[in-house]
Specification:
The complex is a heterodimer of chains A (210) and B (79). Chain A is mostly helical and 210 residues long. The longest helix of chain A has 23 residues. Chain B is 76% helix and 0% strand. The radius of gyration of chain B is 22 Å and the shape is elongated. The mean pLDDT of chain B is 90. Classes of the chains: A mainly alpha (210), B mainly alpha (79). The interface between A and B is large, with 52 and 43 residues.
């Protein structure tokens, strides 16, 4: 029997520290290979370069995942110190940032936000088309706040998968590694998180004003 | 004939273009006959787009690292 994770137990997970974005392949560019060589040789300037080049993106990820600024700064510092300690294994695109946060009690069960079906497997109610597009909804400041709040209020297990997959653009395997879960769980949680968020947006996207 | 429940189960793979051909054909056949699922698929896609649009503008990487943080990290390395 697997022990359930207490909602109050601190959770540690990891995010890949990488220089790539969605438009570039995960390869080490020549400049990065040079940087890695200098790091391994103990070049002080190389460490500073690594922090200044990699830090901003990692800080943005930490802020998004951890909510509290102090937690984000601590996580970033821990991540670099951890990378420095294992610099002989650092390959320029594969250090890990461990983020620690407190699990919160979810405000609402994810199951309540998923579609329901009748016995023959069809939807239990009609699904109207949305009358607004994302751009129309997000043209209003209060709507952007609504979406942010809705994501923030997703149960943590689902919120973090949504952020890593859809926002940080990690693939399924990278997300699974970062969270220490199986790929199948990543897919399930991502799908449910998107459906839950869809359910929250639904009444707002079906009318002209919120 | 695929049911709505089955279609929703396959939705993520369809959205990511990972559904095998035979299932994709069944999936798209169901969409033609079921406006509810077509609306659900459209709104699912719009949800992903909405979340990305909001979150990407929320925590853009700062142009520079806070100097105090850079120095703290470099100092921690030497401890």
């Amino acid at each position: 029997m697997t022990a359930a994770l207490s909602p109050r137990q601190p959770r540690t997970y990891a995010v890949a520290m990488t220089t790539r974005d969605a438009s570039t392949p995960p390869t080490i560019a020549p400049a990065e290979a040079d940087l890695v060589a200098r790091l391994r040789a103990g070049d002080e300037r190389a460490y500073e370069t690594l922090v200044r080049e990699q830090g901003p993106r990692m800080l943005a990820v930490a802020r998004r995942m951890l909510r509290q600024e102090d937690d984000a700064l601590d996580a970033l510092q821990d991540a670099f110190v951890s990378a420095f300690r294992s610099i002989d294994r650092f390959e320029g695109n594969s250090a890990l940032m461990k983020l620690r946060r407190q699990q919160r009690d979810p405000k609402r069960s994810i199951d309540d936000m998923l579609p329901r079906y009748i016995e023959d497997g069809h939807m239990d109610r009609p699904v109207p088309a949305w009358s607004l597009t994302a751009e129309q909804l997000l043209s209003r400041k209060e709507s952007r706040e609504l979406v942010r709040r809705s994501i923030d209020e997703l149960p943590d297990d689902y919120r973090e998968v949504l952020l890593l997959r859809d926002i940080e653009q990690l693939d399924t395997a990278e997300t699974a590694e970062a969270l220490g879960i199986r790929s199948g769980a990543v897919k399930t949680r991502l799908h449910r998180a998107r459906q839950a968020l869809r359910a929250v947006l639904d009444p707002h996207m079906r009318q002209e004003a919120i | 004939m695929m049911t709505c429940r089955e279609l929703i189960e396959f939705l993520l793979d369809y959205h990511e273009q990972r559904l095998p051909d035979s299932q994709r054909t069944e999936f798209e056949k169901h969409l033609v006959d079921c406006p509810c699922c077509k609306h659900y698929l459209d709104s699912y896609r719009e949800t992903v787009h909405t979340a990305q649009s909001v979150c990407r503008g929320q925590h853009e990487p700062p142009a520079d690292m806070p100097e105090q943080l850079v120095q703290a990290i470099l100092a921690a390395r030497n401890q």
